[in-house]
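Before relying on records like the one below, remember that each one covers exactly one chain. Contacts with other chains, cofactors or solvent are not represented anywhere in the record.
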Amino acid sequence: MGRFGALILKNTWRNRRRTILTVLSVGASLCLLGVLMAVYHAFYFSEASPAQALRLVVRNRVSLAFPMPVYYRDKIRQAAGVREVGMSQWFGGTYKDSRDPKNFFARMAVEPDKLYTMRPEMTLPPDERDAFLKDRTACLVGRPLAATHNLKVGDRVTLVGDIFPVTLELTVRGVFDAPENAEILYFQWKYLEESISEGRRSNVGTFNILAESPEAVPRIAREVDDMFRNSPVQTRTESEQQFALSFLAMLGNIKAFLLSICAAVTFTVLLVSANTMAMSVRERVREVGILKTLGFTRGRILGIVLAEAAAISFAGGALGLVLASLLCIVIRHGPVPFDAIRRLSVDPSVAALSLALAAAIGVASALLPAWNAARTSIVQAVRHSG
């Protein structure tokens, strides 16, 4: 089939306007498909970073809304393979105006002496580290968050609680850099504990575990949950990456949503390509008859027509991937609710799958009209008025 490459290329440009419009239509559809596949890959197939692979999160088995007793921490530390255990509590609340989406960001109460051990990828000057440890009302903010709200060391931050009906007056003592989970504010858990009513003390939302090795993570998760299997407050322990996905699951069945949209886009591309190839083949029935008189077999004619369709669809797929890559850059630099989107890109495996799908759609869309044209007899083809 390679020796007919020039003929195939010439036929694809027979009607240039139609070919260009088809390539643009397929490209736009494959752009959307590529972005959706990139999102799916980022959420469900991306590998955890070396630091993230060592961390686990323990929460109440029923729901994140229910706390766990603080004394669980000492029991969890006894599990084999656990290097460190730290407590953390989602505070929520309101910063400035709750109606502005920019003002919604993670606010976590943590144990300051455990934070740097749990998150060694965090970097900030030593004096800012020490200031956070010494000041009970201190807080740390990630650099992207500080840039968004124009925060700097020494600024005051007021958080009005909703889950906890208290108002916290915090002072920014440091701005940290981190490759992930950087849009967050940390403050001292002890300050929150002292601010709330006595009846709500000695409870915490999550425990963070630092494992000795990635291999120990599954075993630690099982051991910790078995440890509290018969307790009044049972636990659910999962890797940090799985814990992040559990927040995504609160929005619904995201997997089914993404896959259904991908299927709809694929079907749309198939219809566009099928319509184009049907028109193209109908215009060339007489030529098919002439090719047969020159000795072209039915299989060879079928192959030429299918190759034309695959080439047009493949070109549209390549254009779509370029557009999808550019769109991923725009998305990951915008306001995003999930850290996985910060790493959004068209992975080579996603690119290869998209191009293969584009070519397959081209072949599938042209199969029926190409088959009908190839099986047309010479007499019928020559008599065809086009």
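The longest strand covers residues 167-176.
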